[in-house]
Design a protein that fits this description.
Strand content: 15-25%
Helix content: 25-40%
Strand order of the largest sheet: 5-4-3-2-1-8-7-6
Distance between the termini: 65 Å
Shape: globular
Bound molecules: ligand FHN
Largest sheet: 8 strands, parallel
């Protein structure tokens, strides 16, 4: 009797451990990494792959219904002769960005790094034969720029990938008979292991493509997230699933929207979870991957204002660049990165290391805060008078951030009214308040 009970217990424990993998709680390094990540505030997203050669974005395989067989001839022609990782990192650093998130493998299934898990990769399948991710990693580590990896859960190339909503609509290569979740899951985890073993410290894995499968599909995320945290405890996990935060995720991603907004159609299912950091990713024009005809670039001023607004909403801003097939950033992107960099050089103190200030985002702008400094970022104001709903008696001084000239104020227990010397006209007029008590 005793023996059979023991047997039952053993079986039950085993079944449970397979059915439900518990997510490992975040380590001390991970919690520290989240803080440092929030301090960085600004990153550059890079969408680059063999699709860049076709000059019509990273979804071209799907949009033009290109078969797996036809598409797989692209790598043999991929030779980005002007690629120079040091130049990329210099441009990124000069823009004021502190980290870069690059597509290690996008939905087309082509790996932009040297991987033993599949020959369909930049080292083995292109005449370039160079591991651009390794070169970028070396340049980033040398320059103190953090490196994050975008990694697609969805795959239009591999026959073992379980057909999802996109691959069912366009039948790129295979049917249900070849799909094999176990094999595909093993492949992803092998690649993630390589990415977290061969390229030094990695700041984050940025997943995308979850939404390719209907509700109920089990991506086995807890075990995958645990693997990442086991390999590099400080590495953060983020997933662009457009859903509420899931267990084991260290930061929350918003696509083309600031946290809490829903203009893109991607953010409907997301509530802002303040227990983790937030990040807003955005295109500079209308495309992620290189698009040869898309010249609809946002102005540098608009991008700066979005970065400022994100900071005021306590979020990082991840701004995308889609390099050309020759390996260089488009000139429009270079110009904007330079302009943002010049602004950050002057005003970065009001952004880096701050958190969203005590006054929540308003139509006129936002506030950021670091200790007893409250920075009032005015991006749109008619007139010269601005009332802030804070205890005016708690404000020791008010000065213009640039030049430190005093700003006249009217104080009450309920508000502080700023009487600006002139109507704000620039991209961001910043008033620096010093608080008596935080
Ligand atoms: O389908 C992708 C798209 O190509 C791009 O990578 C963006 C970046 O946020 N995310 C996906 C759509 O949610």
């Amino acid at each position: 009797m005793k023996k059979s009970l023991l047997l039952l217990l053993l079986i039950a424990t085993n079944v449970c451990s397979y059915a439900q993998v518990a997510v490992t709680p975040p380590s001390a390094e991970n919690l520290q990494a989240r803080k440092e990540y929030q301090d960085m505030k600004f990153g550059i997203f890079i969408h680059w792959g063999v699709y860049s050669m076709l000059g019509d974005g990273e979804w071209i395989m799907f949009q033009k219904n290109i078969s797996r067989e036809e598409y797989s001839h692209l790598p043999a022609g991929f030779y980005p002769s002007k690629f120079n990782a040091d130049e990329w990192v210099k441009a990124i650093k000069d823009s004021g960005a502190k980290y870069v998130t690059i597509t290690s493998r996008h939905h087309d299934g082509f790996s932009m790094f040297g991987t033993k898990a599949s020959p369909y990769n930049i080292v083995d399948a292109t005449p370039f034969h160079r591991d651009i991710i390794k070169e970028l990693a070396d340049a980033c580590h040398k320059e103190g720029v953090k490196l994050h990896f975008y990694y697609s859960h969805m795959d239009w190339y591999r026959p073992d990938y379980p057909l999802g909503s996109t691959s069912l609509r366009f039948k790129p290569h295979h049917d249900e008979s070849t799909t094999d979740w176990k094999s595909y899951y093993r492949f992803m985890n092998d690649q993630l292991t390589e990415l977290l073993t061969n390229y030094g410290p990695i700041g984050a894995i940025w997943f995308d493509g979850y939404w390719d499968h209907p509700k109920g599909f089990d991506w086995q995320l807890p075990a995958q997230y645990n693997l990442i945290h086991r390999l590099q405890p400080a590495c953060m996990v983020g997933d662009n699933h457009h859903q509420p935060l899931k267990d084991g995720e260290d930061f929350q991603l918003f696509e083309q929207d600031l946290p809490g907004e829903d203009t893109s159609g991607f953010s409907q299912g997301q509530t802002v979870e303040r227990k983790v950091p937030q990040e807003t990713c955005m295109t500079m024009n209308r495309s992620w991957g290189y698009n040869i005809t898309d010249k609809d670039y946002k102005s540098a001023d608009e991008l700066i204002q979005t970065l400022v607004r994100a900071a005021g909403m306590n979020a990082n801003f991840l701004l995308n660049v889609g390099p050309r097939p020759d390996g260089q950033f488009p000139k429009e992107a270079v110009e904007r990165l330079k302009a943002i960099g010049a602004w950050m050089k002057q005003n970065g103190e009001t952004i880096y290391g701050t958190r969203g200030g005590i006054v929540p985002a308003q139509d006129w702008g936002v506030t950021t805060q670091k200790g007893n400094k409250l920075y009032v970022h005015i991006t749109r104001l008619n007139g010269t008078c601005l009332a802030l709903p804070i205890d005016g008696n708690n404000v020791k001084s008010a000065v213009m951030f640039i030049g430190k000239t005093p700003v006249k104020t009217v104080k009450s227990k309920e508000s502080l009214t700023l009487l600006l010397p002139t109507k704000p006209t620039g991209v961001d007029t910043i008033v620096e308040l010093t608080l008596k008590k935080v």
